[in-house]
Structure formats: structure tokens, C-alpha cells
Amino acid sequence: MNKQMTQKPTKNSTLPPSEIEINKQVLDNVSTEHANEILERLAGEDAKISKRIQELALEYLTGVDPDDIAEDVFCDLDILDVEDVWKNSGSTRYGYVDPYELAFEMFEEALEPYIDDLRKCQKLSMDEKAKLHCMGILKGIDMFEQEATTEFKDWAVDAPHEKFIQVFEEWKNENTNPKNLKEMDEFIKINFPKWYRSILEE
Length: 202
What we know:
mainly alpha; two-stranded antiparallel ribbon; globular; 11 helices
């Protein structure tokens, strides 16, 4: 899960408490998009700051546990509410919205933060961590397919299989380590035999 970073006053801080609190409020209200832009500008302006940003980023990307990721993925998929499908599909002022297509989109959106983390690892050439992220996502999707009993699942029948294949293919296309590909092949073969044939056919 994402953890919000908050600024704490340090013993050596030269700012009065009122200014520290104002700075904290500003940081708390910065959007993720703007935060990324700010980091990029700071990194471009100062080599030392750039190095420190990289060190902190790597700290947040270490310690990848596929089981933890799988559990988080499953929980985020399992809380998808069929009421949202019913409420926002059918005849609307903007035209007809297919409930099955809407459920698929909701499924995709729930997975996107995890896939985004996977992409970040690959962008940083962190192949081992990218592999573990992918394993966790695949396992979480399978957990939903096997264990979920929600009504939403009935409206997203094809989503688990299709997204399982898509996530694997996206990881495979960016993977640069043949050893990781072999390990992933074994992982899928052993843990998801029913979908292994689909992987081979791609």
C-alpha cells in the first residue's frame, strides 16, 4: 500500500514551528503528478539532490514481497462493488454503457497502481524486483479468480484471464534477463497450470 510521506521537524531545523506546519500543509496538498514534476526539477537543478532522490526511491522499491503484493491486489479487486456497475451502466445521458465493459474497466483501474510499480522497476533496470512485482500481481489476480465470491466477479468474468496474460506479456517484453524469464515460466507452470497453456500460445 502507498504510504504518505510527512515532513517532521528535526533537531537541526532552523524553521520556526509555524513555518514547518505551513510547509507540511503545502506538501500534503501537492498532487502525485505535481510531486513528480517537482522532484524532476529538483533533480535537474542539483546533482546532490538528484542522487539523494534516487537513494530514497530505491529504499521504497526494496524489499518486494510477491505474497504481500498478491494480498493487496486481491483485496483491491475483492472490494470492487457491483452496485457501481449497476449504477453507472445501461442507458445514460451519454449513451448506452455496457455493464460487462464497465466491470472490465473497473478491474483494470484497480490493477493499474501495481502495474505502474512494475513499470517503474523496469524503467530503473531493477529486473529482479520487476519479476517479483509481476509474480505478485499474477498471484493476486489468480486469488481473485479462485477465491472471490462477490457479485462483481460475475460481471467481470473474462477480466482475470485477460489481465493475467496482459500483465505477463508486458513484463516479458521489457525483461532483459533470460534467467528471470525461465523462473517466471516455472512459476506460472507450477502455480497457474490452467493459464499456462494460454501463455505458451501467445
